[in-house]
Amino acid sequence: MRMTVGSIGVLGTVGLLSDEGVVSPRPPVVRALLGALAAHASEPVPSAHLMTTIWEQDLPANPKGALHLTVHRLRRWLEEQAGGSIALVTGVSGYRLDLHEGTTDLIEFRALTSTPGGTEDDLHRALGLWRGRPFENVPEDRVDSELVETLLAERQAVVRRYARSAMDGGRLEAAESLLWTACRADPMDEEAHALLIEVLSGMGQLASALSVYDRIRRRLSAELGISPGSRLTLAHQRVLKEPALTAGPDRGPQPSSLTGRGQALRSLADDLCRARVVTLTGPPGVGKSALALAAATTAADRLECDVTAVDLETQALTGVDLEAGQLAGVLPAGRGRHILVIDGYGGRVAEVKAAIQPLIACSPELVVLGTGSRVLGMPGETTRTLGPLSAADAENLLISRAAAFLPSVFHAPENRHWLSSLLAHTGGLPSAIEIAASLLRTLTPDNLAAALARDARMLLDGGDATGVTLAERIRHAHGALEEREALLLTRLARLPEEFGLAEAETLCACATLTESQVVRGLIGLVDQSLVQPVDHSYGRRYRILPPIRRFVADLCEDARERESVGLRVW
Fold first, then answer.
1. How far apart are the first and last CA of the chain?
2. Which distant-in-sequence residues (6+ apart) come within 8 Å of 270 by Cβ?
3. Which of 187, 300, 449, 522 could form a disulfide with 418 if both were Cys (CB 3.0 to 4.6 A apart)?
4. Computed from CA positions of residues 428, 431, 433, 435, in that sequence, does the dihedral angle turn out positive or negative?
């Protein structure tokens, strides 16, 4: 059956686009030829270029004959599907597509973005043409890799323009979302990082802005051996000249990217206004760092004081060790009222506790907020636990993040079915949701859901906005476990998705782990947020979030522990 063809698509899967969807040739070599021709619109493409692109160095014995055969197959397919509205023409200079009155999504994208003074609506429509990575359904060895990189760079430039336009219009939250996406897409894009630093500064998130600069500075040095350029350096200098998170009308709007954390933000800020030491615990990737910085900023407004943040987790993961005794050195001299955020202390409880005690004693107006896997256990300490997002909040976060590069992706009826499937793999962890959303730049929702069903490791291997992978965050928390706790977690990960205490005692006890040790170990794992309690009308159950369960399973596979663990339910 012929379809009413609107255009040819290459910004995603290659094929004919219409209101009925995308139709692509089945043979990969024919898709490759269609994509190569469509990328050059109505211009003739030399045969030599087509042969090199489609077959790279692995040319068939008769490359001209193979190309002629592929051209014949594509021409016949276009006749069947487009009915003459698109023709494949042979000329002296090579082959070209005669689109007649049709077009390609690439032509439309460049038309909407070619004018420097293009409207924000034009940029929005242009980005909406992208359905994934260019030539997504064409094998990598049959695609012009330089062209793919060129197209991705063009899209990156448009995202920056769109974000800059949103900044100029005062819509900092929209610009922030776009720029986080751009920085994940290209961790070396100095312009995108500079703009993100400016946005975060404008929103009052000075600590986050400085953190963004520090991470790209280290990345440029480690991977390219260069220092930040003038654009990035200037953005950094502007942040340094700002008042350090002081109160006042110039603070800018509070960050609203903390989806579903409104009540937690208010409660934590209240704690900081009436307690000396506050700790925020929760599973890896749950968003403790973002909430802690936002709450510290909110509390600083009320207390009319400054904030200093120390990121121990990232420093530990990147090999930079900050001695706990040096914490006093990061605080301003002659400080009065002040909030110190110690982020990600992990298993260094005793070390950080020893450093905080003299600071609290000699600084009566100092407030300390720590984030880690367990509480510090100090006198008068106020504790909060941050759990995974609710189903509704997790859905809102995924949709909002995916909309930054695939507008209305989950509003399409055919995609709603995949939403719950994707979210099930994330366990409601914001970091995992952000990674899943970033993968939708390349994969369609159904393809991503199928890929995660086969191998959920891609969520663990994906990096968040800081460049730290979820696996590294979980490994950081796992490294703080005692030996028996680590063994118990390995065995609990083999139980059903939810389990009770009796099941844990019966099925996890072994020669090196008695039933009483299972109970004590389970208490420790819950305290460190690696196991989540779940209360039902019929009693309390427990569960391990999917990303953590996957991480533990990988540890078992790497260490070949399947037989040695010997769980009886297998």
1. 51
2. none
3. 449
4. negative
- What is the C-alpha to C-alpha distance for residues 215 and 211, in angstroms, rounded to an integer? 6
- CA neighbor of 24 nearest in space, from 186, 147, 170, 137: 137
Residue 419: other Cβ atoms inside 10 A: 18
User: Among residues 194, 211, 206, which one has the least CA distance to residue 240?
Assistant: 206
Q: Give phi and psi for 109, each to the nearest 5.
A: -60, -45
212 in Cβ contact with 176 (< 8 Å)? no
- Give the whole-angstrom CA distance, residue 337 versus residue 306: 8
The secondary structure of residue 331, as a DSSP letter, is: S
Rounded alpha-carbon distances, angstroms, from residue 447 to 23, 310, 396, 427, 512 = 16, 40, 20, 19, 43
Q: What would you report as the CA-atom Rg of the chain, rounded to the nearest whole angstrom?
A: 27
For residue 315, the SS3 value is helix
10-residue stretch averages of pLDDT, the chain, 570 residues long: 62 86 89 93 87 84 91 91 84 86 88 81 88 89 91 91 88 86 88 91 79 83 83 81 41 50 90 94 89 86 81 51 53 72 83 85 88 89 93 84 66 72 90 86 82 84 68 86 91 90 90 89 92 91 93 72 41
Amino acid at 282: G
CB contact set of 315 (below 8 Å; sequence gap of 6+): 321, 322
Contact 344, 320 (CB under 8 A): no
CA-CA distance, 265 to 122, in Å (whole number)? 36
- Check if the beta carbon of residue 198 is closer than 8 Å to that of residue 241: no
CA-CA distance, 104 to 40, in Å (whole number)? Answer: 10
DSSP classification of residue 221: I
Cβ contact 254:269 at 8 Å:
no
**Measured between alpha carbons, how far is residue 476 from residues 239, 313, 464 in Å?**
30, 8, 15
**Alpha-carbon gap, residue 145 to 143, rounded angstroms:** 6
Interatomic CA distance for residues 297 and 291, integer angstroms:
10
Residue written as tokens 């962890």? 429
DSSP letters spanning 376-400: ---TT-EEEE--PPPHHHHHHHHHH
Phi, psi angle pair for 279, to nearest 5°? -120, 140
Cβ 205 vs Cβ 179: under 8 Å = no
Q: What's the sign of the alpha-carbon dihedral 264, 265, 270, 276?
A: positive
Tokens of 520: 């004590």
DSSP H or E stretch at residue 28: helix 28-38
Secondary element (H or E) of residue 332 = none
What pLDDT is stored for residue 243 in this prediction? 47
Strands 103-104, 94-98: parallel, antiparallel or unpaired by DSSP?
Answer: unpaired
Q: Mark out the alpha helices in 443-532 (DSSP H runs).
A: 445-454, 457-461, 470-478, 483-492, 501-508, 515-527
Q: What is the DSSP string of 396-443?
A: HHHHHHHTTTSTTTTTSHHHHHHHHHHHHHHTT-HHHHHHHHHHTTTS
pLDDT in the model for residue 297: 82
Position 150: which residue type? T
Closest CA to 131 of 446, 361, 419: 446
